[in-house]
Amino acid sequence: MSAPKGNALIGQSGGPTHVINQSLVGVVETALACPAIGKVYGALHGFKGVLEENLIDLGAESRETLEAVAQVPGAALRSVRKKPTVEECERAFAVLKRHDVRYFFYIGGNDSAETAHILSEMAAREKHELVLYHVPKTIDNDLRATDFCPGYPSAARYVSLCFLGDNVDVRSLPGIKINVVMGRNAGWLTAASALARQHPDDGPHLVYLPETAFDPEEFVASVDAVNKRLGRCIVAVSEGIHDAAGKLFADSKETDSHGNVQLSGSGALGDKLASLLKARLGEKLRVRADTFGYAQRSYFGAASAVDSGVAREVGRVAARLAASGAAPTGTISIRRESGSPYRANYVRSELSAVAKVTRPMEAELLSGVHDVSPAFLDYLRPLVGELPRAARLSDIAVPKR
Amino acid sequence: MSAPKGNALIGQSGGPTHVINQSLVGVVETALACPAIGKVYGALHGFKGVLEENLIDLGAESRETLEAVAQVPGAALRSVRKKPTVEECERAFAVLKRHDVRYFFYIGGNDSAETAHILSEMAAREKHELVLYHVPKTIDNDLRATDFCPGYPSAARYVSLCFLGDNVDVRSLPGIKINVVMGRNAGWLTAASALARQHPDDGPHLVYLPETAFDPEEFVASVDAVNKRLGRCIVAVSEGIHDAAGKLFADSKETDSHGNVQLSGSGALGDKLASLLKARLGEKLRVRADTFGYAQRSYFGAASAVDSGVAREVGRVAARLAASGAAPTGTISIRRESGSPYRANYVRSELSAVAKVTRPMEAELLSGVHDVSPAFLDYLRPLVGELPRAARLSDIAVPKR
After folding, report:
1. What top-level class would CATH report for the domain A156-301+362-384?
2. N or C: which end of chain B has fewer CB within 10 A?
């Protein structure tokens, strides 16, 4: 196929990340330089903005604004959680046609790839020539066919820094500390807590992930054992922990239009685990539970350098591939070439390679029922970058008199 | 009085901060240079370490270790929450005498100042010459007789950065967002959220502090009004909000030995407020509640430059004043000389000026029942330092076709 001539439209979808605007600017700057592409538009609130014809002219933004926006977390085009119906896809196509849009870039996770897939099938049926690229992002790191998902390393960096802080905090005032980390189906982000271990007695001492069935009895016994050994225990828990039958430990009635249960934005799971420990190990036990919340994906200042660079490049590659006429649809996969310094190359994959199905952590990245393996830490370290050193005093004891 | 000759002992007490080790190192480096002071010891876990004679030799630490430790959050000497009994004070004095300790520095908040006060009275009764200085720290900023409390500006910086992130996050995916911020009796830290306002529609749109009685009806009505106007609402809530009679909105059974109710380390308050909004404004409303947790005082990388510098200097001044023989007891007060750049001088105050009674925000720093005044922002800005810019796209609309 040859690249069609026409305008480009970009949308952002799903939960934002620290670096989702790097990808946006990567697409914009490259698309603006492509001869086949005329105007470069943005859809406000993703697919919703297409439906409602709420488009903005990204080509009219100054270079300075684009660069400043690239540094900012959150979706600069604003986002949406929406699975379009067939009727909505038809209305969206009418809008695309009216604005001569021939290139559509959707920056998002696996739900967004699914939306892009539905759109591309409709385009084929309607014989409307539309080049449709998914640009990957998600702090969950649960897309298949890529070394990592842009957004994940920065969220992992934030989580590591929080656990680094908790290590010194809980060493100061000992007790049991439970930290609930985002991650519904995959434990990647919770697992990043393990990067905070610098001293042999550092936490997280226990890491519970949705890849392994959660057994409350094992949890109580393991916390008790660590606490008896060290006088404290720091636990990393994924919000998506569930029993062997798949039933979530923390249940909620609220679901989005993709059928995902609301787990974030509530302290219920942490409080339930804390209550369990107190009931079983004693009401006087000092137990605290923090639920990390939205700062994991939006804290200003946690972006990893590798993540920022790769997110930008993924946007550029998507625009370049789209305008090359190589294939009418695709997503960008990151292939790691070296770990330190991190180097990658970028290839096109089919939308179906990332849509719908998520990628849990592989067995070799786990260790037992409550830890990660050294292989996982080797994988993660170059993505997150160097962490501050948690220096300690030497504790040279003064002899008792 | 003249300065006694003998050893110095340092302890850290209460909740740690980002810069509490700057003060520790400030005391150590200055005490080591004082001719009157022999050895410089640290007590592990504050008063508990004195009682149990768990002392370490801080003079044996390398300059490099001390400098590295100064940068790290958490109490490097480890901390304690303890109100000593008379019997414990007697045992502690026996330890001090055995180790020829003539200088005791207690780095802590108002509870710690109270402990220091009790110790000093006992020293006077026992006619044991003991120079006793309180070195102020608390993220709560609720000590009297000082411009600010070391630890507060860094915690305020972290809170501001979180709200900066929430502004872009909630603008991306609109809804109601409640953030619960630490602060039992005083709203200083919650109020710092207001620094995150860079655009006219930025949050926090409502700021609820313990200085004002919390009225659930007013809360529901105000959230509803903001949400109707902007399509979103970000609320900053202090964990210590209470009704006109002083009854906490979030109640807990756990108290420490100073009688403080446990409020942190639980998501209960945020979830209760979220449930209230859903019950009153509709179950379909997107409401999320985050409780910021211990990262507020221990996140690696949020330390403000002014805070770090002043915390160090407060430690140095305490050691200098103690060894000068000017007065046997005291605490260090910070007096602001200029805001931008921040400059301060340091004076001695009586322990009684900071012990027991806390300092709520003054009326002129508040505005109505759910906001702070411009005077508060003028006070806070130089302490927190420059914040990243939350750049936005210009949103140049494409005409509908």
Report:
1. alpha beta
2. N
